[in-house]
Amino acid sequence: MVLATMKRANDQESPRMWRSQTKYSEAPRSQQSIANDPNTFYFKPLVFQELKSPQVYPTTTTQAPEPRSGHRIVCDDANLYSFGGYLEVNTGFTLPTHILQERHMQRLFEELWCYNFAEGQWKYLPTAGKAPKELASHSAILYGNFLIVFGGTGVPFGGSSSNKMNICDLRSLTWRTIDTTGEAPTPQYGQAVVLDSTTRSFYVIGGTTGYDYSMDIHKLDLTKRHWEKIFVSRGDSSEPQPRYRHEVAFDGDNIYILGGGTAREAYELKTVPVFNLKDREWYMLKTKGSLSGRPNSTPRFPCPRKCQGSVQKGEEVFICGGYDSKNIFMDLWKLHLPSMQWHYLPVKMPIPLYFHSTSITSGGCMYIFGGVTHIKNNTRTNRVFKIWLTVPKLKEMCWEALLHYRKDIRQRSRTYLLNTGIPSEFVNRVHPAPPGGQPELGVAEKWDSDIILMDDSEN
């Protein structure tokens, strides 16, 4: 095992004085002692780590988001962004909705927050323009420098819902609502969305109005800004059950539905509903259970659940947490799409969670933020966790080691960091490149120039 360590530089040393040393463990005992040393970096795949940050909320200039659920997070390789969310003050007994509202015990967060991985801190981002007001159980996607937010509900849930396409330019921190034509989805929340950058299409699947559930599918042509109904439920037995707070996976041709449910039900994961975009038909695919490796062992499947977290990395989809209206889960599962094979991953989340939000970096690091931790007490959290779901490239491990040993890296200038020999792709994660330079947010993809989603004439 090789552990990369960095000699700590004092304030007087030059950039070229950053030196690396390599230590080789000589025996298992020495390996264990190094691994237990919090001051020594070692790469840890499939291990949950909590990211600490200040926890003070005196004013709107708070240093971290308050506990919440129903929010959404997205991330690139440099930052995690959180938008919206809901918090109900726990009184110890049940109160009618109108009393909760009158006493300001129900709160929606019209807030955009950013957690920079290099800095290890939250930052509140004040925005301009007309931000969405439906801030619970909306959908969010990060594409290039744009945060796309669709749907959502206010309180009471279902009393006011949205079917608007809202986009925030993360460079100017300006919100815009995109005008569309065609037949848009019914205003709703808890829907799932897919962005197909190849065909420039945005799909909305299922959701609830607060009274009715559906599995209808609508497509928005991002070039023409025109909505089209792709599928409307006929009530056939071949169709999946209407639902909300499900998650989806996408392989370019098919949309896979994972879990979800209604206010009282949670749907199983042994059979996965799949919608083929070419045929515009539903298919039910049986999955294969995870084997423990023991002879004659019974295959294991994830329990039915809704409000779980989910991320996709290539052909693999990961789900974590969620609940079935009675139990909150702490497990982590992987589904290989081509084979429909489930794999139970022998690691538990640090706390049980549902209505949390998850996102993944291009290198395969999943982040978890917020969620409900207790059904009866209805308590929420603002803790942040990370876990490497894959083994990334060596350069990503080196970057993590550098951040571990150089706590002051955020305070160093862009020129200083470049002069030390740090590749620009990593310097951009700390200090965005100036206009005309590298991509500002370190993301891999941008809107094509002919998709004018941010027309100056709109507001």
UniProtKB/TrEMBL annotation:
Which stretches are tagged as biased composition: Polar residues? Answer: 19-37
Stretch list, region Disordered: 1-37
**Key words of the record:** Kelch repeat, Repeat
Output the superkingdom of the source species.
Answer: Eukaryota
Instruction: List the SUPFAM superfamilies.
Output: Kelch motif
Database matches in Pfam families? Beta-prop_ATRN-LZTR1 (PF24981)
The Attractin/MKLN-like beta-propeller domain is annotated at 59-324
PANTHER family hit by this protein? KELCH DOMAIN-CONTAINING PROTEIN 10
- State the protein's name: Attractin/MKLN-like beta-propeller domain-containing protein
Q: Which organism is it from?
A: Orchesella dallaii
